Amino acid sequence: MPDLTREELIKILAVSERPRLSGTDLSGLDLSGLNFAGADLVRANLSGANLDFAYMRGARAEMANFEGASLVGANLKEVNFKEANLRNADLTDANITDAIFFHADTHGAKIDPTSSGSIRTT
Predict the structure, then answer these.
(1) What is the per-residue pLDDT across 28-39, written as a single tens digit (0 to 9) for each?
(2) Could you tell me the residue range of the domain that residue 119 belongs to?
(3) Which of 35, 55, 82, 116 is the Cys-Cys partner for 95 at CB 3.0 to 4.6 Å?
């Protein structure tokens, strides 16, 4: 069960320039279109979450769980996914410019080869 509702999360994101959501369970929530720019999502559980068209530029998502999450059209520019679980995640049409996927598990993930940017692995 998620730690927060979408409404509670919207309030947190509205008042914090760099929201600290490390370790938070947001699994299965509809988080589409939300602004996570610069957020601390280290070890957060976003498995099965809908992050379509979310703005996540510069977020820290090291060791976070995005298994089965939908990130269609999301802005993932400069997101650090180091050691994150992105198994079976859908990153179709996502902007992955300068995103870091070092030691991330992307098995079964849909990463559109025509997406903006490229995957950095170091």
Answers:
(1) 999 999 999 999
(2) 1-122
(3) 116
Confidence (pLDDT) at 1: 78
Structural domain count of the chain: 1
Q: What is the pLDDT of residue 114?
A: 57
Mean pLDDT of 94-111: 94
The secondary structure of the chain as a DSSP string is --SS-HHHHHHHHHH-SS-B-TT-B-TT-B-TT-B-TT-B-TT-B-TT-B-TT-B-TT-B-TT-B-TT-B-TT-B-TT-B-TT-B-TT-B-TT-B-TTEE-TT-B-TT-B--TTSSS-EE--
What's the CATH code of the domain at 22?
A: 2.160.20.80
